[in-house]
Amino acid sequence: MQVLSLGETLTSKRREIKNSAKKVEKVLPTLLYDGMRNRSDVHIRIEGKAELFSFLCCLINYSLKPSPDRIDCPDAARDVLSKPKNRNILKSLISTESTHVFKAADSSLPALMLRDTTDRVEPSEDHPLGLCSDTLDAPEVINMGAGAHEAGFIPLFLCRFIIPGNRVATISDLLLPDADAQMAEALRESMEKLDAQSLLDELIEIKSYYLDMPTPDEAMGPMLLFPLHYKAIEQSAYICLSPIPSATMLTHFKDHYFQSIEAYRALDLDERSPEGADIPDMETVAIVGSQAQNCGSAVQSMGGIAVAYKARVGFSAQANGHRAVERKLKSRLRSLMSVDKHLVSFLCKETPYRVIRMRWEAYLPSMLADACSSLINLRQCGPTVEMAEVRSLNTIEKNYIYRNTPGDKRAGRLLPADIHEIATYFTRKVDSSIIRQRRSVGLNEVRKNRVYMAFRGILETTS
Amino acid sequence: MNTLLIPFSAHQVNISPSLHVTGMVSANAITGFGHALCRLIWDMFEVKAIDKGTALAIDTYTYHPGRQKNINAEKKEADKAVKGVGASTTDNRMGYLKGWVLLRFECSLAGLDLVREHITELEDQINRLRFAGGTMDIVQGARLFEGDSGMKSLSALPEHARIIEDVTVDLFRYADSSGIDYFQAMNELLMMSQRPDVDEGAEDQASGSEESEDFEVDSSEGQWEMPDTLEDIGVDSEDMSIGWMPSLFAMDIGYRAIEMPRARLARGLYLHAYAEPVIGLARIRMVAGLIRSPSIQSVFWVHRANHPYYLSHGATPVE
User: Could you tell me the pTM of the whole model?
Assistant: First the structure.
């Protein structure tokens, strides 16, 4: 964590902030911008009343487009606060301060003030619970705002800075004197200097009103019924639940995802692991379309895209059951190798990026072993079907399966020549399947070689 | 206990149950289907059927990535004039599932006779139920196993069927023993399960030592205990993986209410609460391995309401 004083951030290099149309909207000192938006490790240390006053001016002037020449100019801030429109925005913002993003399901729903009011439950062996904001060890993220017109004022309330005593606070916390009486007093004096005493009183009133009455009266969004106990049908004992995501979870998932990828990219090529970054398979999910700015600060900071765990369950049933293999052996059917369309699409996948290519190579042996799993199984466990009963199995496959049976003269390990023969056969089999299914020329030489080497590896360790 | 085995195929199944997990139906979809089935039996025959857990076995599973679906906005006419009619979109993953649902239930002997006699009528009605938001069709006849706590009906499944097992307790044990939070524990466990070990012993895995799980009685199966050190876990997680299908995955297991339930104008006359989704850990395994393991309790999912947690667990039902 990088803790800087306000003076250092104000004198840092200035940076142009552009909107989506590449037009310069604001010019702000870089470090101050980072500290205001809570998006990096930069934290601003505030000591004393004078610093709080100029910092408050910076936060208020952040909403101005174009920004004034000096970002901590008190006159500009006084001007902003004197306008009734801006005062209304501030009041409506403080009334939407929530821990859970109700609007993430749909940006045109109303912004509700939803605060987590339950107590923390300790997980135990009988009640292992699961991953939710209760069992997540991360700082709580507050969501605020109901529309794009309010976005400029969000940092005023939600910017985290360090107050004397090494504690992290926001302006929203300081409205109530419980957090820090001294800083709350300093805030009051600063607002008096900006001629906004009455506004501060109103804000405090709204905040304490919503803290007493935290949840709204209307039930909105998707609903589901959950039975309360095993006699729920007779006694009609259900509870109605409306699922809404937690702002802390959404933000933490996305932050962690990109931190891992950044750390991976910072490594040298030799140090990188072939599986890619140190995160499980995740998938990005667009949640609000193009209207992320209407959903409040949490979704806005994520750009309207959440990161979700992807359950990799495998495609189709590759491994055959015992009876199915027996039936195949006795029938006059095709070979026991199964090259299905998922394996074909995996092998033909275009791999433009290095990370994807590494992943492709890492998954290759497993996918190929999956294709010949029936054969490997039969060789490992010994076939239950007598060799005489086997009808029209391919000769190479037949030799591979029955070579280590006690009656065979050449029992034991596969010779290098056999391994070469079988691996070549497998590779040809895969290649011909690709040609047949894709109507293409098949694998190129490099990939064919990779497939051959992977088969060799599988055969050498299984023999 | 009795078990009802229902072979089904369901399409348009919602496999993105929350914003945190995609790729598999939620656990509440499994338990909810079992509950709806009990309600159906109650409605049709007036038989008091007590839900003792529902299991989902998968045969075929496909998934259309990134299908977008319009979420209809709750807009008034005046708002439409001001803001426009373009509703926001949300990525919604739809899937196709083919497999079996196993419902364990208890009811009186007279009720059981009714169910046995009218099982064809029951099938017709089951076709009207929905599974995880999708449409469900029974592909073969449903079968009733009497006096069965799950083992008989599981043995009737083909051995390659894959069944979803609850291992959230391992997430707790891992987080507890390592002193880390659930998010980190979840990431590490998933990484261990998803990572194909190319550096050391990749070909060992390819040897089919795990493939043979289908055929051999593996004494370590189902007795996976959480060891203390990381090295041991690496070894154990290899043992428990099934074939080449990465076996562990995150799953939406229920909800945690963020407030005390209140009377609101919600569905029916029930109390209402806002709740956030909870992510658990599940494991997919072959039926072949499962029926040779000592305990099959954790594949039968049941509701468990314990304020503020409203979860579905694979465990013995609490009475």
Answer: 0.72
Nearest CA in chain B to A234: B48
Helix (H) / strand (E) element for A375: namely helix A373-381
Q: How far apart are CA A393 and CA A398, in angstroms?
A: 6
Contacts of B254 in chain A (CB under 8 A): 130
Evaluate whether A420 touches A365 at the Cβ level (below 8 Å): no
pLDDT for res B203: 36
Chain B, 54 to 113: residues with Cβ < 8 Å from chain A are 58-62, 68, 71, 73-75, 79, 83, 87-91
Which residues, at least 6 apart from B131, have a Cβ–Cβ distance to it below 8 Å? B8, B10, B13, B25, B29, B33, B97, B101
Cβ atoms of residues A336 and A325 within 8 Å: yes
Q: Which residue, A153, A158, A142, A157, is CA-closest to A101?
A: A142
Q: Work out the minimum CA distance from A203 to partner chain B, whole angstroms.
A: 25
Please, what's the b/e burial string for B165-177 (b: 16 or more CB within 10 A of its CB; e: otherwise)?
bbbbbbbbbbbbe
A197-214 pLDDT per residue, tens? 888 888 888 888 888 776
Q: Residue A353 has what pLDDT?
A: 64
Residues 6+ away with beta carbon under 8 Å from A298: A101, A104, A141, A142, A143, A247, A250, A251
Distance CA B79, CA B43 (A): 43
> How high is the ipTM of this complex?
0.79
